[in-house]
Amino acid sequence: MTLTQNNPFMKSYRNIYPKVCSSENINLAWKKARKRKTLKRYVVDFEKDIENNLNILRIELLLHSYRPKPLRTFILRDPKTRKISVSDFRDRIVHQAICNVIEPIFEKSFIYDSYANRKGKGTLTAIKRLEKFQRKVSKNKTIVRKSSRKNNFRGFYLKGDIKSYFDSIDHKRLIEIISRKIKDKELLFLIQNIILNHNSKDKGEGMPLGNLTSQFLANVYLNELDHFIKYQLKVKYYVRYVDDFVILHNDKNKLGLYKEKINNFLKTGLLIELNTDKSKIKPLSRGVGFLGFRIFHHHRLLKKKSTKRIYKKLDLFEKNYSSKKIDYDYVYNSFEGWIAYVRNANTYKLRKRISELMENRFQGEISTKEINGLIKFQNTIFQFQKFLFLATSI
Asked: Which of 77, 106, 321, 374 gives the lowest tally of CB atoms within 10 Å of its CB?
């Protein structure tokens, strides 16, 4: 039993389904769902008769006759193999309409240091928070006495990774967690229909990677873990981004105890478990591997596998561009996203090398001056998120 279950002040919400189905909310959901996708064929087709299509969708929701269409799935190998499932555009509008209403409700219960898919959070904010914790735990790199290692300063970290997280989420358990706050049976029925619209390997488990509702509900599910770690284990230095989390402490044995208790909680409370191969305890002096970077106290390095990934990507782009499978705009947008990503680390020389490769391989299309302008003036990580999670551009 978790802290959220025991909290007598947890407010529940009833009769909010009419708000989900309201004309205002459906229209707002449509505008959000089409954002940055206005030229996509499926959006253009839907908007040819937009007023009628939105009215039909609303009536289906009100009459409880709405059923999501089968998901379109494909395999993404970047960098590891993932099965991405994409909903029909009208279903994405429904997902957005649900999140418009329930996201503010659950947001109040989320801890501060959960950083995925939340306004004002994100990858860069999570990294900065982790750096702050590093300095606190190590007491600004206080060197450990009687250590045989050079520059072996105080502190350790537990890097936690949940095994096959999206494929392992238990449907029944998820609905139980949602229903603690949402007491509206009509809305719960709709959410359940969306969750079940996924052909998973094991019946009653898994959510599709790529849906807005999946991203949001994944946070709701692991909010249980957040509360366990913060309020029952009373961990002070903890950061989570989706299913990756880091706990910092100056006592290695304490982290070992945390790891054991967390895995027991996950198995019994959420019916998932840690990936033991990836969940390791290491000294802070080696840098913390998190979100594609190796993070040290006063600088960040790009992980080697992230560097290899961009070279492989560049080879693939050149091949597909030569065979006219992709156009230059696609290459440019992906490169722009990569620049926004790596500029958050000490990567000047690497960016320069990649810039020169881009100029050589796409002569006549892109110039070093143009690339260097991106390196210097790119001030947003939106394109990085688009590049990293590709599903958002589908």
From this structure: 77
d(CA 214, CA 206): 9
The Cβ-side half-sphere exposure at 42, using a 13 Å CA radius, reads: 17
- Sequence-ordered strand ranges (E) for the chain: 72-77, 81-86, 156-161, 238-241, 244-249, 280-283, 288-290, 293-295, 300-302
Query: What is the rounded distance in angstroms from the CA atom of residue 107 to the CA atom of residue 114?
Result: 10
How far apart CA 29 and CA 19 sit, in angstroms, is 12
**Tokens for 286?**
């080696």
How do residues 40-59 score in pLDDT, each as one tens digit? Answer: 899 999 999 999 999 999 99
Closest Cα to residue 95, out of 44, 39, 26?
26
Outline where 63-88 has alpha helix (H): none
pLDDT < 70 regions, the chain: 1-10, 76-81, 140-153, 363-394
Q: Coil, strand, or helix at residue 281?
A: strand
As a residue count, the chain comes to 394
> How big, in percent rounded to 5, are the helix, strand and coil portions of the chain?
55, 15, 35
Cβ contact 141:130 at 8 Å: no
Report d(CA 179, CA 163) in Å as an integer: 25
Distance CA 306, CA 308 (A): 5
Q: Which amino acid would we find at residue 375?
A: I
